[in-house]
Amino acid sequence: MFETAQRKAVDKSRAHAPAPNPVPASPLMLLIDDEPSVGRFLAHAAEECGCRALATISPESFRREYRLLRPDILALDLAIPGADGIELLRFLAQEKCEAPIIIISGFDRRVLDSAMRLGRALGLRMIGPLSKPVRLYELEALLETVKGSTR
């Protein structure tokens, strides 16, 4: 009988104990690159930096996943069949995107800088261009910079 009363008291105290703080989810990076091997590399690098990552290869899938997931970090290739990174920057501006955006491209540095300026002019949070081939340490540095400032 004492054991039953003790068990009830323990169960009752547990019911009123504060819930443990949930572990915050790691930031989600959504990226688009029409080259699957590059997309896998970027996603893997993001995961190594403590992010969750989802790679898309088409503008349609990128838009759909953006609307569904509202990711914390975005990475855009400027040259994508069926659209381009500039169109996606406009889409993100229309969606009132607040996530930091990384531009990735094999285009000349002046093109990357122009895309960065346009993104800023559209009110987007542009954090850096990366030239292809992407160097892992450069991507890691950008991700570490923004990881602490996301949601």
TrEMBL record:
SMART domains: REC
Keywords, ordered alphabetically: Phosphoprotein
Domain (Response regulatory): residue spans on this chain: 28-147
Superkingdom in the source lineage: Bacteria
Region of interest (Disordered), ranges: 1-21
Keyword Nucleotide-binding assigned: no
Modified-residue entries (4-aspartylphosphate), positions: D77
Gene3D superfamilies: 3.40.50.2300
Biased composition annotated in UniProt, kind: Basic and acidic residues: 1-14
Protein's recorded name: Response regulator
